[in-house]
Amino acid sequence: MIRRLFLLSVLSLLLLAACGTGEPPREIQGADALIPSLTWQEPDKLDAAAAFTLTRSQEGYILAEIPDDGAAYLVVPAGQPVPEDLPDTVTLLCRPISDIYLAGSATMDMLVKLDALDSVSYSALPADDWTIPEAKAAMESGEIVYAGKYSAPDYERICGGGCGLAIENTMIYHSPEIKEQLERFDVPVLVDQASRETTPLGRMEWIKLYGVLLDREAQANAVYERQAQAIRALDAADTGKTAAFFYIASNGEVKVRAPEDYIPQLIRQAGGTYVFDSLETTSSLSTVTLQWESFYAAAKDADVLIYNSTVTEALPDLDALLAKNPLLADFAAVQTGAVYCTKENFYQASMELGDLASDLHAALAGETDHLIYLNPLE
Q1: What's the sign of the alpha-carbon dihedral 197, 199, 200, 204?
Q2: Which tens digit of pLDDT belongs to each residue from 46-63?
């Protein structure tokens, strides 16, 4: 009977969501205007992130804002009262936050680095889709359960289990009714915007937001700083080498990263030149499709080739790459043996971009003994 009532309520709310609210996005007003009963300090000075802000009150409350999403969250310390003047436009997050539904896969690495995996109860990826060992093990043991993909969540499991927060990635904008539905069931929703940061450091600095939410700020700062130092250590690097980062789709089209994407930025940070730097793009997509002739002309003389296996399959050897297009044998990097394939953990290791930059530098410099995320193809 309870299950039937729950499903009926879900159906009715879905019908309401289908009608749409027609409301414009909420505007960020700032802490003083939103909650004047608290004494607010100046916003935190972040190192590189531009897509979120943190403002602290003298009473220990923290206001987290995501301007592009028009979202504001008040983080309330454990045991502290909720301000009486909290407006409806601010989402309330009372520590400790638990039973998280994690639909943003890049966020998982941040929570693992914070030793906060016990705060996650629900995953939008099944166990086999995780390349993060801790996440896979937690799902296989039942500590985290599969609760439906981001576009088709198991509302009954998530809402019935007392979910304290749903963390989505920007793919949720393709299914906005899902976000609205979760919020109607009083599940707070935060859309991770790290992928929209313009720099690798900005992407990683989102760990500081999760450090605030989960009361692990010291750990967040330490993890971020270690990776930031690894990137900064390469500031003066100049290998004089060029690199292409790509994969070949099943239809034979070549996919490369847009020049503004974080991977080309890391290649430059590692002391290399990205061979597609002059590529003109007309959208905000991180991946650009090239005809084979254009790819051949730009990448044939590249010193290093890096094949992105996170989208297709990992390549066991150089022959597997050449099987995709025999003309790759003409490429300078193939002839000199400077061809690499990303490992399966490449994409989900969102908090290890400093180590990835070090790998890229080693590949450009021909030092392949201690690579973490790249496999030399022989």
Answers
A1: negative
A2: 999 999 999 999 999 999
